[in-house]
Amino acid sequence: MSRQLVVLSLLLLGANALGKESSRGRELTRRKVTLSRSTADMPVELHVAPDYLTTLEFDSPVDRAGVKLADSGGRFVLFEVGTRLVTLKPANDLPPGERVLLTVPFADDRVPASALFALVMHPSEVDVQVQVARLPRTAEAVQAELDEVRAACASKDAELEALRKHGSANGPVGMILAGMMGPEGITATRINAASKSGDDLSSEGIIAYQGPGWTALSLEVVNTGSTPWTPAEARLFLGNGGRPHDLPVRMKESRLEPGKKALVVVETEGLNKLEGSDLRLELRDSAGTRRLLFGPFVF
User: Fold this and answer.
1) Residues of the chain scoring pLDDT < 50
2) 27 - beta bridge partners?
3) What is the model's pLDDT at position 140?
4) Whole-prediction pTM value?
5) Dihedral sign for Cα atoms in the order 69, 73, 79, 82
6) Phi then psi for 150, rounded to 5 degrees?
7) Helix (H) or strand (E) holding 122
8) What backbone phi and psi angles, to 5 degrees, belong to 17?
9) 119/86 Cα distance (integer angstroms)
């Protein structure tokens, strides 16, 4: 006889025995458990006992490989997992107050994504059949998820539009069409900012190029060390101690070889709003171990 037929036969025997007197004085009970998003992290308490099978039947397929029974001490002599059934039986009585957690993830993408149970011993009853159902999503929940998706799409649309604007600004014609250059043209300002580095990097200063709504900081970096260096990020610190601005940084070469010089460009928006403020600029690699600092300086 196959294992599934054995489990089904035991289920039928357990169902016929419900309400009958047991040899240990425990009442055999059948329960229905309904899961919801709000109670997903709260374990459902189930009563188990030796010599009795406790079978959980789910209305959705379970992820069999992900089902976990926190039984490191081998307190359960039977633990079977099927597509929609989980059957278990403890070897002996569990100590009073002890709980064994059972986690059952589902195979689909509905919510809640998993069910959590706390297996305990009860002196007068044992749950032999437990039917587990998940509440269908309400209209309010669906609408809330739809609103989140729409908000995320709107944010992505704004980012895409900004990328299109910058992507179309190739050469003077593109910059004029994108509104990044007008009658006032582009101004270039040399900033006297001393560079500091304990990682064999140096620079002679910064040149700021500014147009309508944008600013680019250009600087030549010399690698006097013995290993290559690649700037991964730039950070602009405000003199008032506010949160630093993370800025994109570009370099034509893939990396700056030892003894070589390379032009590094940092792009920022709205830097003109910081005129007269004490600023500090930091360039560093992806590991954050080799850094080049500038400042304080005033734009």
Assistant:
1) 1, 5-8, 12, 15-23
2) 125
3) 64
4) 0.42
5) positive
6) -65, -40
7) none
8) -85, -5
9) 13
